[in-house]
Amino acid sequence: MIRIRRIIDDLTPIDRKEILQVQVILREQFPLLPEADIQNLPEMLLNPFKFQFRSLLFVADDIKGNVKGFALLLHAPVLRFCYLDFISTSKKMMGGGIGGALYERVREEAKALNVLGIFFECLPDDPRLCQVSQEILRDNASRLRFYEGYGAYPIINTAYETPIKPTDVCPPYLVFDDLGQGIPLRREVARAVVRAILERKYGVSCPPGYIDMVGASIADDPIRLREPRYIKPESIHAAVKHGIPPDRRISLVVSDSHSIHHIHERGYVESPVRIDTILREIERTDLFEREHIRTFSEEFIRQVHDGQFVNYFKKVCASLGPDESVYPYVFPLRNAARPPVDLPTRAGYFCIDTFTPLNRNAYPAAKRDPTGNWPLRARDFETNGRLIGRLKLPTLIVQEGGYNTRNLGLNARHFFHGLWSGYYRL
Q1: Residue 383 contacts by C-beta under 8 Å, 6 or more apart in sequence?
Q2: What is the domain extent for residue 26?
Q3: Is the domain of 230 the same as that of 361?
């Protein structure tokens, strides 16, 4: 299965591995690209001030971390535009629809950033501008046909196609995708955008006066785009897809193997509806992406958990019958040198009592919850979630507690809405 996700930085091993694969694709598909530019990719993700753009890297990969394609989108928040720097698949994956999926994801991101649109360069299909073989011209036309399908067209009546160097034989068009917004691009805005692109992308490569000349050549107000050449207007799908892209959703993991709520031997009988109540509310939103549960070997479990606890857990489980359960005592025991002989009692050797810590963000903190007397309402949970989201930190949310099932799901939905909105600053 192929997924599209954003790589924010190179701080984790999987992201470093995939950035290296993106760099391989850059070398394969863009052989004239300077190696220094390829090596700059990790720093571009971390240092928007140096490169004068906020860089967003999207990859199409599989569950094993094999990159099939990527898109590098540059965001200029002050001028409110995005520039698509690169979009490419690996040579093995060309023509498989990955490029289209990446471009749609880029459009969704740009729309969420509330920009005017996406600008990018595309080689011409005009032999008067691009003096190359017919095969290359056909490839150029194919790319322009692809972008026409989304309502993106070259900007016309400007000198943007003027070669920077006399030896350049195929200077690019500047293409504009307004994301289906239908808002005219005014002349002064276009001039500012073009200046920013040329200064930040090409800078010293441009001869003296070149940037001023290109900017002054933009005379139409609003700017004009080339008429559709390959696709009938009624077949163009310019609107950006609605909904939240999968990689911007909150990962949701629900274990159906932990639904024991009745321990009659200890008089512990509970209505097993809390999870269903929460799921019924939060899955009404588009905020969540269900993740498949995977089974890991004991080797991985021991890397996460204390070895003595794993041994204890195995011993307890081995002593139980097929339908037998154990309700452990979980009050913390302090004598580490003398763990209890009784196995249920020994649970406190590894755990702490669930009533010992008080967490004002836990669901029992809700107003009218029978386990507490806190006053938090749905809007308070949303505020708490927003504050946590604004920290921009990897956050694990664990459901614990909450006994008033009439408002449990509602509070959970508001909390997660706040968490997501805070992270994306909505």
Answers
A1: 418
A2: 3-235
A3: no
Three-state DSSP class for residue 49: helix
| Residue at token pair 């008033």 | 404
Is there a contact between 382 and 415 (Cβ–Cβ < 8 Å)?
yes
Catalogue the long-range contacts made by 52-55 (C-beta closer than 8 Å, 24 or more residues apart): 52/76, 52/196, 52/200, 53/83, 53/200, 55/85
Closest CA to 173 of 229, 212, 231, 111: 229
The full DSSP string for 96-114 is SSHHHHHHHHHHHHHHHTT
Mean pLDDT per 10-residue segment, the chain (426 residues): 92 95 96 94 96 96 94 97 96 83 96 96 93 91 95 97 88 96 96 97 91 97 95 87 85 72 54 76 90 86 89 85 71 66 73 50 58 77 93 82 75 92 82
What is the number of other CB atoms lying within 10 angstroms of the CB of residue 161? 20
Residues 141 and 21 reside in one and the same domain: yes
Whole-angstrom distance, CA of residue 426 vs CA of residue 12: 27
Question: Where does a domain end: 212, 235, 258?
Answer: 235
Query: What's the number of CA atoms in the CB half-sphere (13 Å) around residue 363?
Result: 24
* Domain end position, chosen among 204, 235, 266: 235
Residue with tokens 């995005």: 82
**Spacing of C-alpha 313 from chain mean position:** 37
Residue where the block lists tokens 């999968």: 246
Please name every residue paired with 173 in a beta bridge, in sequence order, or none if there are none: 122
**DSSP letters spanning 89-157:** E-GGGTTSSHHHHHHHHHHHHHHHTT-S-EEEEE--S-TTT--S-HHHHHHHHHHHHHHHTTTEEEB-S
How does pLDDT run across 193-231, given as a tens digit for each residue?
A: 999 999 999 988 899 999 999 999 999 999 999 999 999
- Let me know: does 402 contact 367? Beta carbons within 8 Å: no
pTM, two decimals, is 0.76
Over residues 1-36, the pLDDT tens digits come to 789 999 999 999 999 999 999 999 999 999 989 999
CB 265 within 8 A of CB 325: yes
Q: How far apart are the first and last CA of the chain?
A: 31
